[in-house]
Amino acid sequence: MNDDQYYMKLALDMAASAKGKTNPNPVVGAVIVKDGVIAGTGIHRKAGEPHAEVHAFKMAGEYAAGATLYVTLEPCSHYGKTPPCANLVKESGVHRVVVATQDPNPEVAGRGIAILKDAGIEVEVGVLEKEAQRLNERFIHNMTKNRPFVISKLAMTLDGKLATHTGHSKWITGEESRHSVHLLRNEVDAILVGIGTVLADDPSLTTRLPEGGGKNPVRIILDSELRVPLEANVVEATEAKTIIVTQEHASKDKVDLLSKKGIEFIFVQKHDDGLDLRALMEELYKKGITDVLLEGGSEVNASFLRAGLIDKFLIYVAPKLLGGRNSLTPFTGLDVDTMDEALDVAFSNVDTFGEDIRITAYPK
Questions:
Q1: What is the pLDDT of residues 303-317, one digit of tens each?
Q2: C-alpha separations of 91 from 62, 125, 345 in Å
Q3: Catalytic option among 53, 187, 295, 299
Q4: Catalytic (active site) residue 53
Q5: Neighbour-count burial for 140-151, b at 16+ CB within 10 Å, e otherwise
Q6: Where are the alpha helices (DSSP H) in 1-160?
Q7: What is the pTM (predicted TM-score) of this model?
Q8: How far apart are CA 274 and CA 241, in angstroms?
């Protein structure tokens, strides 16, 4: 690892500490180095607050002159809730800027880099680029697809079973895996399940961390027939907001009762294969929801898979064998005839949590 990679890795690690706190903005880290000494560091902490470069330059002060700035994402060039960082960098006196990856935002998209080059600053782009793009996969997806980034999280036994034939699934994985899921909930804007999960488990779908605190994501329930019980945990809207997704002709009386409890609704068309999930994603994005964690059962997983809406898989595998002809698998839906019809995925990495493993994969 050369010096540029070392300092960029530091900036990426710093940026990662803000995951889930900056939405809809990206996570960004910045490091200012002069004569082999770190003079300033900064991260973007929250949407609407100063960007990473601002914090780094404030720390560096006069030592920024003649230094090198390492930043994980191209400095912005447009006026949003804060002034453009490219102008700040241009006026700082740094002689060199190393950028991990270009900003996919059409309002930036190379303009920030051009401002710096036009000012005579040496600019290098692409140091640890893949790592930077993976770190901001949610933001890049939002900018290029204009819809939420969807993560399918599921836990299964070694033989690919989600639950017993009775639907019992507590607990497939160990405590360490379950803790990691709460860390995930703390990062995402929303968590989505089907009505089957609500009826079977009556989950709270909140973030529970041993150290306390944490952000509760918006709870989204797919319920085309409005079967959700009025006493269900997800109907208690004081801890977290709940949105129920149902068909346009749902019972007005039930809608009124749930609305009085603080529940919000999204109405979409229901087709033969279920609710219109693409229309749902559009509505969620309009509401400012940038990523969704699927924690539903096999029907919900299959619906999103069939619609081509899963962008990332997090598959927890426990060292257990369940067997059984009628044990539930992670994806149901229509049967296929040949392996040619399988969805190809690319394994990204494998992590361990206690005795469990977690496979991260992406659709090819």
A1: 999 999 999 999 999
A2: 12, 20, 46
A3: 53
A4: yes
A5: bbbbeeebbbbb
A6: 3-16, 52-60, 85-92, 111-118, 129-135, 137-145
A7: 0.90
A8: 24
